[in-house]
């Protein structure tokens, strides 16, 4: 969708019809056909986008841990645990925060805690981005934050723009006309 690496996907070739002449079954002929086949199958299989997530360690006085919650929740983050640091009045808070929402987070935390908190962040894992990236009914408005169910579509469109790709992902460019007609007939048969 965005010309990014694909995760957790296995491709099995169950059947292949190759040309008789060796010149017509080299890598130059097989690889582009296989690539089109994989791309079209990925796009028709309800694909989802993934987003990176930071693990945060926040050190702050114990009495202001509750002041961190609003700063995290407004950015789709959440606290997973907190524990006191032995021999100090400080508390260590563990939290998760999507990387895309982390910009300016440290400034917000220092504002909420009046400069009493220190934030350390490191990449932890990938999460599914909320929403359907292929949902064309979602309309994005410039300079307005998107609701959570629209984020995957927003990520898709903005990433494609940044890479100089068209905004819309079309499956039809991976199919030839005969295959499109056959798929349409099979879909009609399934709906009956």
Note down, in words, how this protein is organized.
This protein is α+β, with helices and mostly antiparallel strands and 192 residues long. The chain has helices at 27-43, 65-73, 105-112, 151-162, 177-191, and strands at 50-61, 78-84, 90-98, 118-128. The longest helix has 17 residues, at 27-43. The two termini are 31 Å apart.
Radius of gyration from CA coordinates: 24 Å
Strand order of the largest sheet: 2-3-1-4
N-to-C order of helices and strands: HEHEEHEHH
Strand content: 15-25%
Going by helix content, strand content and strand pairing, the class is alpha+beta
Coarse morphology = elongated
Question: Major sheet, described briefly?
Answer: 4 strands, antiparallel
Helix count, per DSSP? 5
Mean pLDDT: 85
Assign the CATH architecture of the domain at 50-128: 2-Layer Sandwich
End-to-end span in angstroms? 31 Å
Q: Poorly predicted ranges (pLDDT <50, ≥5 residues)?
A: none
């Amino acid at each position: 969708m965005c010309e990014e690496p694909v995760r957790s996907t296995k491709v099995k070739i169950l059947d292949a019809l190759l040309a008789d002449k060796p010149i017509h079954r080299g890598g130059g002929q097989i690889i582009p056909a296989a690539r089109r086949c994989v791309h079209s199958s990925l796009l028709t299989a309800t694909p989802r986008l993934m987003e990176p997530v930071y693990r945060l360690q926040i050190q702050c006085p114990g009495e202001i841990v509750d002041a961190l919650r609003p700063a995290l929740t407004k950015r789709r983050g959440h606290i997973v645990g907190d524990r006191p640091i032995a021999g100090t009045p400080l508390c260590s808070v563990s939290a998760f925060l999507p990387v895309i929402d982390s910009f300016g987070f440290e400034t917000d935390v220092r504002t909420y805690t009046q400069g009493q908190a220190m934030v350390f962040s490191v990449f932890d894992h990938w999460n599914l981005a909320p929403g359907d990236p292929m949902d064309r009914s979602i309309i994005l408005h410039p300079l307005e934050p998107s609701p959570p169910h629209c984020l995957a579509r927003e990520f898709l469109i903005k990433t494609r723009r940044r890479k100089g790709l068209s905004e819309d992902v079309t499956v039809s460019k991976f199919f030839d006309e005969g295959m499109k007609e056959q798929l349409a007939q099979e879909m009609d048969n399934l709906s009956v």
